[in-house]
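Handover notes (outgoing to incoming on-call)

Open items:
1. Vitamin B12-dependent ribonucleotide reductase: sequence verified, structure written out, both below. Nothing else pending on this one.
2. Nothing else urgent.
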Amino acid sequence: MGRVVGDHVDEGADVVTTSRSRSKAGAGLKVERVWTTEGVHPYDEVTWERRDVVMTNWRDGSINFEQRGVEFPESWSVNAANIVTTKYFRGAVGTPEREWSLKQLIDRVVTTYRTAGEEYGYFASPADAEVFAHELTWMLLHQVFSFNSPVWFNVGTPSPQQVSACFILAVDDSMDSILDWYKEEGLIFKGGSGSGVNLSRIRSSKELLSSGGTASGPVSFMRGADASAGTIKSGGATRRAAKMVILDVDHPDIEEFVVTKAREEDKIRALRDAGFDMDLGGADIVSVQYQNANNSVRVSDEFMSAVENGGSFDLRGRLDGAVIDTIDAKKLFRTISQAAWECADPGLQYDDTINDWHTCPETGRITASNPCSEYLHLDNSSCNLASLNLMKFLRADGNFEVEKFVRSVELVITAMDISICFADFPTEKIGETTRAYRQLGIGYANLGALLMASGLPYDSDQGRSVAAAITSLMTGTAYRRSAELAGIVGPYDGYARNAEPHKRVMRKHAAANDEIKPAGTVATAIQREATKQWSLGNKVGEKNGWRNSQASVLAPTGTIGLMMDCDTTGVEPDLALVKFKKLVGGGSMQIVNQTVPRALRSLGYPEEQVEAIVEHIADHGHVVDAPGLKPEHYPVFDCAMGERSIAPMGHVRMMAAVQPFISGAISKTVNMPEQATVEDVEKIYFEGWKLGLKALAIYRDNCKVGQPLSAAKPNKATAEAPAEVEKVVEKVVEYRPVRKRLPKKRPSQTVSFSVGGAEGYLTASSYPDDGLGEVFLKMSKQGSTLAGVMDAFSVAISIGLQYGVPLETYVSKFTNMRFEPAGMTDDPDVRMAASVMDYIFRRLALDFLPYERRAELGIFTAKERAAQLRAEAEAESGADLAAMAASAPVETRPEEPKTGPVAQPAQETAEVAAAKPAPSVGSSTELLEAVIGKAADAPLCFTCGTKMRPAGSCYVCEGCGSTSGCS
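Vitamin B12-dependent ribonucleotide reductase structure tokens:
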């Protein structure tokens, strides 16, 4: 395979010839080319263009970020370029020190990795180091992989070289340790990362202090940490503090811990309905506690068996292990599930499963995780992440680039290990543990897109077998490379005392790989190579040991997923079939995910049918009843949200398929419908344990009433809801909408129209402070049936508007409605109408909705459409000119920005700019809401106010790249 090897392993040999002395003799990695071409720099293989990045404030439209003339490859999307410019470019804006090109960013990081690799003896020669640097550069440039955000924030800058995104802390039963916990968390948040901690060592509120008083208990100390986290924004203004708090199921305060956040949700309901400002950043939201952390209960096999068998369970004191209380295990499990049903917390972490796969038990147990639950290892440790873009390895014929994937994993895992050599850490304890155990977290994104493009349903045996095989190949290759590195630069310091358990876990991974039942030729080929990698890696590891105690995790890939232009994050399926896309000249548009036509072609549909199905999806947002699409192919296009959403157990089964091949765990939240019951939550949590997951969290749609949503949804009491929940609802003051009537004298306008020959009049009246409040429709003669129906319809719409129903809701429902009369109109902005209703609400949208909302709905004036066509034509013309320029001889690459105005390839004319007012940022979640007519449970971005979308167990903002957790 021409692999990158440092110990010259012959796959057919029984003996691996490596030794620690060879490293001293100058042995190192021989790096061969994978993606690059000898004699050609990666930067010279792409077409570059200059762009303006201007970010506006979502509240008032003012500019809050502006950098003009930044340089990116032509293939990079507007969104990816915007996020890299605003998040990752270093230096003060407007100064010469400010980075302005992707070349500078990549060089800053890659040069640091190369220099450190040479300094610490990783490469056989300077030529190998140069090939390594070129390969990393090519992969980053072409979005094949990305390091986690702290690398882009810090590496190669005067700041501390923090490279880790995930941290685990430790708290002991002393005030000094608790106060250290507060301080250490703050330092981690300041550096742009998140942390987790297990509070189970702190004595319970049912135990005594040495002074004779009663202890406060861990829940009370959570208040102080929560308040501290709420005042700190990670990385300056990158995101709010992300943290995880864990308590063991046998802690005497476990019941108090379980219900903390559910009780706070009751408070939010009561305060909101009493008129207090409980929105994001509201004046009164600060009175709510415990909202800055994810909570998890660490459950044991003993407890879960007691739940299964209906037995009792002992809660034990922290000082001497004495039994403090004995409880009904099923009752506590019900309380956990009830709380999760109400507010999505707590999640579960399965302690015995976690520690059964622990490579370093002789050093200590795994007690905690990072905020998103994918990093699980020793206390006071950290993990740096990197994720591969799986779609870059899918060939046009549907096969997977197995060899390139293997060699790419080798390169990435090598770079990740090098970073530990030069990295800084927030505390000395974390630095010592990380340098001694060298925990890495390679992972991937775009799994959902890969499966769909391959014509495989996410929730299917075929889909799971491909996912399992890819994950096994990734981790098997990573550990094989780790074993080879151990022969060059030595195993991790803690390996000697943990050699036997580490080897045992490697054998467990290899045995799990043998249990994969590949479905199809693609999965078979990947699994065959994975078997080779595990066999070879374990053979090399027996001789050398391993360089890293951990190799892989599946992270949320929030911001870096956007940087790589991924359609799906981590292990997640596609969010929806329609996608929100930003345009170069400003504005946005709705498109059908490009994965869809590729999937249809993979399934054998001819091009004309592909076009018809894509058009149906664009109109309806789903594939149901799409012309020519076979019902047996519907599951291929199932998504996380929408008309055909994947069942909760489908998510759990996918997690179970890939978990045996992950060193850590999986950042993922199992989404459940609003009508799900507490019993459904219990089943999910119980099945997670049975299927061998390490951690699991659920989110029931619309359960967190305190989350700031773009639209409120009514509280739907169901017959299945437990009696306890009904009692909670009874305590809440019932909310009733208030009608806002128009004044006696109000501004109005009348439009005469003709649709398919049928004539009529539309009169629209608005409030003096703007906003449509009344509609009158006149068609046919007074007293006719049609006139009466239109009058009644007008009254119904008017009353709805006055009670606060948004106009865009009506527009999304009534546009594209088809019935006669239909056809040509006399309106230059709406030349064709599918019905009178279609015309009326398109006209109302044009007159009363802002541009950005209309753009999401695909409604434009004639002038705006003409401007778009001209912009597209100019963009194509600019691209042709750029291609011509690129074909000319290149003497040197530009190193400094040119002075004076920068020509924009897709620069719009003044008329276009006038036709397109600067829109506020939108997102795929908001587009999905418009398509399905239902608000999605996603918070607004703290930085720019855009509605975020799910990314693993966190959320990511498509507007500015901020995340609610690890990235």
